UniProtKB/TrEMBL annotation:
SUPFAM superfamilies in UniProt: RING/U-box
Official protein name in the record: RING-type domain-containing protein
Organism listed in the record: Caenorhabditis brenneri (Nematode worm)
Coiled coil regions in record: 15-66
RING-type domain segment(s): 96-121
Organism lineage string: Eukaryota, Metazoa, Ecdysozoa, Nematoda, Chromadorea
Length: 146
């Protein structure tokens, strides 16, 4: 009987060892599964991030193309300034620095006494009672005219 008890104890010991090994295997498997799920999530987030970057790159490219187009349009946009002495003292420029003729400023002024530059849409509030005193003169252009 003693030999039978030893065998039972030995079998119980082996069963307990196998249970412990099985528990370790299960834990390792759960850890691997968790790592795998994290990798899937990480890859999903990376894809989303790459997609957002791609969309941002496309948006930037479109904006750069618009800027180039607007720049080309601005180059071709001219205002015929009368270059005679009678009108040459009327070349004015708003706060953005673009030169406008008196006639253009008259057409661009709104009820609040503000003009928007036709080149860059920068608003300028007139500082005087009339247009000529409300905007500074562009003396560089005036010197070319005389």
């Amino acid at each position: 009987m003693q030999s039978g008890n030893k065998q039972v104890c030995h079998k119980d010991l082996m069963i307990n060892q196998l249970k412990a090994e099985l528990a370790e295997c299960r834990l390792a498997l759960e850890n691997e599964k968790a790592k795998s799920e994290l990798n899937v999530e990480k890859n999903h987030l990376l894809k989303l991030y790459r997609d957002e970057l791609s969309d941002a790159d496309k948006t930037i490219l479109k904006q750069e193309q618009k800027i180039v187009k607007l720049h080309e349009q601005m180059k071709s946009f001219t205002v015929d300034i009368e270059m005679n002495k009678k009108r040459s003292n009327k070349e004015l420029f708003p706060c953005c620095g673009h030169t406008l003729c008196f006639t253009c400023v008259e057409r661009l002024i709104n009820k609040e006494g503000t003009i928007k530059c036709p080149f860059d849409r920068t608003p300028t509030k007139l500082q005087g009672v009339d247009i000529e005193r409300g905007l500074p003169r562009n003396y560089a252009v005036l010197n070319m005219c005389t």
